[in-house]
Design goal:
Largest sheet: none
Distance between the termini: 22 Å
Radius of gyration: 17 Å
Structural class: mainly alpha
Number of helices: 7
Length: about 180
């Protein structure tokens, strides 16, 4: 079985660009929801909270679907197997980090520590990127480091979360343009 992990489920090219666009859209939707006086007056805080959780969940579904679909397309174009031991292990790591991230965010939200939601997300996202770096793709360390830097910024300035999501989106788009498939 060939080692096709680096070809499948990678953040190169169009995949990274799409995930960057998803970051932009997610940040915009959350910020619009929170800053819109109409919605805040007509919706209960619990409904707004559920709406934001739904937006974040949809972001993760879209990002995961993008990784899977484009990985499957790459595998079929190169006529290689999509699944091998390394890709299965990577999916387990990815699922584990996503699960722990959601649990941590839900716990922080339930404890009403909303100022720590964005830094926690950025730390877990940086960890996820770090787990999937390879010798050939050390550029992911730049995205992981940027994510940790943005986590520190959001920890110091809690209102910086929207700008941080935009910066991470720009970084993903730039990474996708520079590191082509």
């Amino acid at each position: 079985m060939s080692d096709n992990f680096q070809l499948n489920f990678s953040l190169k090219g169009f995949t990274s660009i799409l995930i960057g666009v998803y970051f932009f859209i997610t940040g915009y939707l959350i910020e619009t929801t929170l800053n819109s006086a109409k919605y805040l007056e007509t919706l209960s805080p619990k409904t707004i909270e559920i709406l934001i959780i739904t937006i974040v969940f949809i972001f993760f579904l879209l990002a995961t679907f993008t990784l899977f679909h484009l990985g499957k397309r790459n595998a079929s174009q190169l006529q290689i197997n999509l699944w091998n031991d390394k890709t299965r292990a990577a999916v387990k790591k990815y699922s584990g980090v996503i699960f722990v991230t959601f649990i941590a965010l839900i716990v922080l939200n339930n404890l009403e520590l909303i100022n720590y939601l964005a830094p926690t997300f950025f730390v877990f996202y940086g960890t996820l990127l770090f787990l999937f770096k390879h010798e050939e793709r050390k550029n992911l360390l730049v995205l992981a480091g940027l994510s940790l830097l943005l986590a520190a910024m959001c920890f110091l300035i809690p209102t910086y979360w929207s700008s941080s999501l935009s910066i991470l989106g720009i970084a993903h788009v730039a990474y996708g343009v520079v590191v082509k498939e």
